[in-house]
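Good morning C.,

I know you're traveling, so I'll keep this short. The sequence:
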Amino acid sequence: HLVAILLFAPVTWLDPDMMALSYGIAIALLIVLEMVRGWTFTDDNDCEAGALSDFYMIFLDEKDSSAAKGGLAVTHIALIVGCAFPLWASQQLHPTDTQDAFLALLPFLGVVVLGIGDSAGAIGGISFGHYHWSGGSSRTLEGSFCMFLSILIVTNICMGIGISGENERCLHQIIEFSVPVLIITLVEASTTQIDNLCLPIAGSTLMLLMTKLGR
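The tokens, ready to paste straight into the viewer:
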């Protein structure tokens, strides 16, 4: 996720069209690699599927358990799609109100939520987590708080340095941002789906909804 921040955020700032195209190319290449990995997988040794599969095994998580047996590994593709979706949505909408903080931050939302928020939540949960959410969730309250706080801080810093076009830090805007960020955090704490996908999609929907309500 740190690599995603360093690679995607600067290019999204400088040349969003190039970044949008690059996302599409990256996703296409990853799909091709998955096809190649599937073809090279052999049933003779379920633990080995060629050099490419050996490399993939290092990065698999519980959502990619089928990949160890030759199935599709989705986490890495979902990360790229999650980072790309808010930018693609922003470009399709062609926002004209560049002073709207929600619209201005929308292209960066995937990188912020996944690269910063999700990572901070994981680090906070591992380092300080003691109280788990109900329902047998592996997520902790401490991790969720770290995620909420990190996203809120970064979004408000972005507002202050000009991404949103607002130079004054307004308490009203901070409260407005707290609402979608809190909902994103709760979604992350409760979902059993691929969070790399559902968090950016949910976040983009909330940002656009807040923009409409603000009007």
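Safe travels,
E.
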